[in-house]
Amino acid sequence: MGTPSFAVPALKKINEVFKVDTVFTQPPRKSKRGMKELPSPVHEISNQLNLDVRTPNRLNDDLEFFISKKFSLVVVAAYGQIIPDDFLKECLFINIHASLLPSWRGAAPVQRSLMNKDKSTGISIMKIEKELDSGPVLLKQSLPINIYSKHGDVEHKLSEIGSDLIAKAIKLINDGKYEFKQQNHNLKTYAKKITKEDEKIIWNMEAETVVARIHALAPSPGSYFDYNNEKLKIFECKLSDKIAEKPGHIHIIDERLFIACNDKYIEILEIQKPGKNKQKIKEFLKGYKFN
After folding, report:
1. Contact 57/29 with Cβ under 8 angstroms?
2. Do 154 and 71 touch, CB atoms closer than 8 A?
3. 64 CA to centre of own chain
4. Class of 5-191 in CATH
5. pLDDT tens digits, 140-156
6. Which CATH number is 196-287 given?
7. In principle, which of 2, 161, 212, 252 could form an S-S bond with 77, CB 3.0–4.6 Å?
8. Cα–Cα distance, 100 to 103 (Å, whole number)
């Protein structure tokens, strides 16, 4: 069970090493222009692999089918629906979760870890239980990160780690040589969904925090600031040694753009105007004037 590109490497690996009987993924969604419905990345790969695909709007709509298959193991990776109890009691469900549990349970673990300036994130292979991401863990693997780590890059690396780790987990389960270890629930933290408020850059923060938050939302949805009634999105930046004046102050020198946080300036490296392509800052400044 999976939907976005994050789940694709795991699907490929499981099908290559073992055998996938059935794939559950979210139904096709309309494109941004609304002209046609687009299948999920998992759906597309499943079709290429000639796998049976199910796309119920609600999982409970397919309960009868699910029970009839008598599955022994279900792997879940960013499916997009809560697994109902009637499914969980039928067989073992394990999840590829993109954090080092019990840290960052929930919907946006990678982004929240990056925003928090964590030194590492990772993958946890866990048993799915009723409470969100609370089940015991079978395997973990960490990945170092820093304030320059971008969400898209980190998620890609984690998807590859997850594909290898889930193959190890399935082999352990098949061989009967596995042990799930309970999480320390006292250490749990939650990764709430990214909101529109998260996307707006708050210059009255420390420069390191601003840099981390910008990269946590790159390449999508991106972080923005308002200038002359336009939302300018920033996708890449770096710390500078310049001591800040007023937060939000813009300083341009030698075709370089600096914006002040509450302690230091950061240098903007990649930016985007509404409706336009992303640009490196030197090119952007040729056609955009700051007051």
Report:
1. no
2. no
3. 32
4. alpha beta
5. 999 999 999 999 999 99
6. 3.10.25.10
7. 2
8. 6
